[in-house]
Structures are given as C-alpha cells and as structure tokens.
C-alpha cells in the first residue's frame, strides 16, 4: 500500500522521499519508479522518488512545511513512528497523515496527543494495492488547516468517476493518471470521522462479500452448479443492477482453475475466512450505540463460524439436515426462475446492508456532533474502493434528494424496489431453509426489512417480561411518551403505579 501510494503521488508530479525499516522495500520502490520512468516517460524527467536510509534523512529531503504519510499497521506501530518523527525533528506545522485502518477513537486521541509536536491528520484509504497505485477512495478527517494544504494532492491521486453515470473512469497505466471526472475524496469531518466512515465501509464490505458467498452456495449446493457455472451467472448479474467490483472478482475467482491440480481453485482453497478487525469494530459499534445492523454482524459471525473447521467436520457427521430437495423444484422445475429470484434477493439484501451502514454512521454522527454529508460519502465510494458499485449512484441521488433521510429504506427508489422484489427474496430465503443451506446474511436482511415495516413489534411482551422479573417499568400506548409505569405483579390485586 505504501509503495503504491508513493508511486501514485509521483505519477501526479509530486516529489517523494521514502523510508522503511526494511531497506529492501525502499530500494524496491526506487527501482520500480526508475523502471517506469524509463519505460513510460523515456527517462526525460528526474527521479521522482528518493530512497532514504533513516527518518532524519527523509525529513531533510522534504520541503517545509512537510507532509508525511504513514502506511503502517494500526495500533502501536503508528505511535512508534510518530515518536520517531518527534525525535528526528519534525516541526509543529508539519502534517503527519495516518493512512492505515486505525480505530477511530485512537485517531481522536492522537490528534490531541501530538498537537504540540505536529498536525496529526488521518485519511482512511480503500481500494487495496491496485487502488492505491492507480486511484483509491480517500476518506480524510481532522484539521481543516491540514486538509486545505493536502487537498490538491488528494484530488489528484484519488479514483475518478463520470459525474453523469457514476461509473469509474479507470486507467491502469503508470505515469498516465486519470485526470478527468470527479475525484473520490472529500473532507469527511473532525478527527476520527474519516476512520469511522471507513470502518463502516468495511462492515458493509463484510456483508456484501458474505451475501455473494451465500448466493454462490445456493447455486452450488441447491442447483448443483459447478463453480464455473456460478461464475457465468455472476457475470450476467454484473451486467445489471448488481454491477460491482466484488461481483466482478467473484465471477473471476469462480472460473479460475487451480494451477496445480486443474480443479476449480475455489475447491482447493480452505474454507476458513480471516479478518483484520474492522468488521468486528463495526458490529461492536452498532451494539454500543443501539443501531440495528444484523446483516453486518452476521457477516462477522459467518467468518467466525468458518474458522471452526474441525467442529464443522465433526458435526456434519452428527447433525442431520432436510432430505435433499433440489432448489429448482421450488421454482416449478425452472432453475432460471430461481436464478432470477436469487438475483432479486441479493439486490434487496444488499440494499439493507447499506441501509444499516448509513444509519449507523448517522447515529454516531449525532452522538459525536459530526456533520456527515452522506451524498458525498456515497459519491466517493463509487470508484477506487472495494465496495464500488453502480448501485452507489442511486444512494447518492437518494441523499441528494433528501439529506435528512433517516433510513435508506425510506428513499422512494429503494422502498419501491424492495416492495416489488420481496416475494423473490422470501422465496430465496425459504429455499435456503428448506434445503438446509445456511444464508445468515440474506435471511437477516429480510428480518431487518420485515422488522422495519412492522408497525407493532412483540417488544410490548418483552417489556412486560422485564417489568415482571425486574421492575424495569414500561410506557403505555394511551399515555404521554416518557411516562413510566410498573405493575405490582406479586401483589394480590396487581395494582398499577405511575413512577
């Protein structure tokens, strides 16, 4: 990531001084810049990246006031580098930018901690290594003074989209960066807000990936499709409303043969999924603030279940499932009908996962006093980042039409689409249940949809239970909001008290 960001910045006509504790990495980026300069620029410009042996040398080569980007793992390494910069003589008006996946609360504390030493700024980066090289989605937050100074650089190196269509403008050519279109970066807000937005982005990413995986398993185990056949289905879906980077790469992965055995590569990959923590942070944050985000949480749980490989192997021999009934029979024998139904189900579940993410950002923004522009956030996710999708253009338009939208499901576009597609969604979920195929994210998204369209939930009984065993009180439907009541359950006449 650090190497590719450096090359991206150099491509946009900025000089870079690079340092890493691993000298081979420094020489690697210097050598790559040289090769690209010779090949693509005919070696007519001076070296754009200077390799440095230590932090002091790096600082000496930067023009004051300096801009220093950190591309290190979250946590203690960030503070370690900051301390080294202080010891090397960084100055109060220099900017130090954390581009890693730091926990947002750590970012808030760091801005305070280093205020007298330098301007600590943060910028979450999405897009992986290729995005970093040719145009990532950038989510900066912190000091406006710092942002005003780095904004031209960020706009230059960010991914670009066509303003009318919302589609990415991509060119993967060294020394020939995309300059046309809207840059996928915007000032998010005060310290920590950018990393929080990126954290939620990653939570949505967890859900999006798991939803695609569940659709794959329904086609694989339900219809008996080969991985390559599922890949072909995904290719068709990618040409429609489900167009996205994740759908595109999923189709590619499923059609890839294993170089060693010739078998489908996906069958040779161990079914144990890793995670680096941002999805977990999103789920925890939703619980802490009381924002329902079941699809995101289920995606985290799905990865956790996948790691229990030995238990799953044992229990697969002990626990029985339904007698096998091909999914196609639920669609009157027409597997193409089921494929179309599953496509609609995936779309609906995807809308709900985004709705959960945006609602979580809105609730945290209110809690922290941030003023987040959700139309702008949706816009900068249209290219460069992992969840980039045509779908985000509709989200952008929804928030442009109503900036105060409390839940994405309230947008007419999505309310209408989910209402029309819900029967297909329900069929897909029932097919999964009847066939014993786990679909925790697709089904939890449906429960989320049904919960929000339900005017009266059984929480009234739950409050009765709580009052019975713990005297937790309840409000009444026929009395002013906020008035608390308790029934004396243990008394003979069960009198009602207003508290």
Automatic annotation (TrEMBL):
Pathway participation: Carbohydrate degradation; pentose phosphate pathway; D-ribulose 5-phosphate from D-glucose 6-phosphate (oxidative stage): step 3/3
Keyword Transport in annotation: no
EC number: 1.1.1.44
SUPFAM superfamilies: 6-phosphogluconate dehydrogenase C-terminal domain-like, NAD(P)-binding Rossmann-fold domains
Positions contributing to substrate binding: 101, 126-128, 201-202, 206, 276, 303, 466, 472
Top-level taxon in the UniProt lineage: Bacteria
Signal sequence segment: none
Record's catalysed reaction(s): 6-phospho-D-gluconate + NADP(+) = D-ribulose 5-phosphate + CO2 + NADPH
Positions of the catalytic residues: 198 (proton acceptor), 205 (proton donor)
Alphabetic keyword roster: Gluconate utilization, NADP, Oxidoreductase, Pentose shunt
Keyword Oxidoreductase belongs to the record: yes
A GO term, aspect molecular function: NADP binding
Pfam families: 6PGD, NAD_binding_2
Class in the EC hierarchy, top level: oxidoreductase
InterPro entries: 6-PGluconate_DH-like_C_sf, 6PGD_dom2, 6PGDH_C, 6PGDH_Gnd/GntZ, 6PGDH_NADP-bd, 6PGdom_BS, NAD(P)-bd_dom_sf, Pgluconate_DH
Domain spans labelled 6-phosphogluconate dehydrogenase C-terminal: 194-490
GO BP, sorted A to Z: D-gluconate metabolic process; pentose-phosphate shunt
Family of the protein in this entry: Belongs to the 6-phosphogluconate dehydrogenase family.
UniProt xrefs under PANTHER family: 6-PHOSPHOGLUCONATE DEHYDROGENASE
Quaternary assembly: Homodimer.
Record function comment: Catalyzes the oxidative decarboxylation of 6-phosphogluconate to ribulose 5-phosphate and CO(2), with concomitant reduction of NADP to NADPH.
Protein's recorded name: 6-phosphogluconate dehydrogenase, decarboxylating
Organism of this sequence: Shewanella piezotolerans (strain WP3 / JCM 13877)
